[in-house]
Amino acid sequence: MLPLLLFTGCLLWLLYYDRNTNPSVSAAVWVVVAWGVICGSRPVTEWFSVTTTEALRPGSIDEGNPLEAGVSLSLIATGCMVLLRRGIRCSLVIRRNAWLFVFYLFWLLSVLWSDYPLITFKRLAKDFGNVIMVLVLLTEWDHYEALKIVGRRIAYFLVPLSILLIRYYPDWGRAYIGYDQSEVMWVGVATHKNTLGALACVGAVFLLWEFLDSRFKSRQGLAKSGAIPRLVVLLMCWYLLVIAHSATSLLCAGLASALLIVLHVPSVRRRPGQLEVFGLVVLLTIVTMDSFFDVKELFLTAVGRDATLTTRTVVWPVLLAYQDSPLFGPGFNTFWAGQRLVRLHAEVATIIQAHNGYLETYLNGGMVGAGLLGTLLLSTYVRVRKQLVAGVPDGSIRLVFLLLAVLYNNSEASFNKNGLIWLVTLVAMMEYGSRVRSVNRVSTAQSVSSPHQQAVAQGV
User: Fold this and answer.
1) Residue 362 backbone class (left: φ over 0; alpha: ψ -120 to 50; beta: rest)
2) pTM listed for this prediction
3) What b-and-e string marks burial along 161-181, b requiring 16 or more CB atoms within 10 Å of the CB?
């Protein structure tokens, strides 16, 4: 009980301190924090039971959980009310996010040809809650600071609590796997090591960005700038990444952190083409070396994976054989539903995702869905690249979140999945008109050059 009381006291102090440091951010961001905490941890109902086997039954997955649906609906409704009170302009949202609008419009139309229209619609409605939450952030007067606050608070809630559960409450923080249930898997606030890894990855990248950003803009010491608590939680994130043994999350966190550090070099940030050329050269070098020395197998062995990516590549052909609508797919997140899910459950055990975001999108949306996803990612990269060159304050973290999603989805599926990776991917993808107000605040405080202001005012 004492560790839990200490954690609660420290958390309350951090939240109180955090509230006083950013008076310009409204209390409405708490709805985004609540959504992010749920996305980054286990479902609400599973906090009342340490047993999760029921959730793996096909029938249970199709039916969903009324309490979970009620919680999600309540948060979405609250977010919608915030947006209505702020007078959000739907035409501006669509215009600034045209490809994302087309992407979701396709998924909405998939209800028409889905074998299970109700399941498709319910899952799409819940996923659209992520869009609502990002819009709540973007319509803040200073969405730049609002993003920092939301990220910090989610990390403050979930990262230390994960370590607390793993060390002192093993019935909650650990799971036992294997045929004889003898192998320990650290899960913390999540339900699987990969989910815990995703939480730690997002936390590590976000807190590093905030630390670098504050250090470049402030001449105060660590104690006065309030960076010490964030550094402590950042170290906790890396601790979780190491003990979770989620190779994908560990690799993505390392690459994303390195990219963040590089992007804080002004000359590189203003000329991202240098990074693109460097990345292309490295990729070509690796491909060339792999043809002679089998670099891929050596790398996978080094990170604790085999050539099948822990049986992922073995499962992929099985899943492709069940795709009976290659053009449009069965509908939004409906590949894993109904009788197909029953047959897959019998053939590939408890797997309920393709462990590849691009394949998962193809399985649900066919070639059209996968093509729209590719177009969305490419258009986002082009826009974020322009923002980075123009010096937009959150351009670097948007670019890193986008590349993080691109890498992560090679061996996990996060696109259109309720989780922190998809939430931050939407942060990178979405735009609204409040950006000018945020940059005006930064320019007033720090004398940002007029070309920068002009680029932002033009909607870069």
Assistant:
1) alpha
2) 0.85
3) bbbbbbeeeeebbbbeeeeee
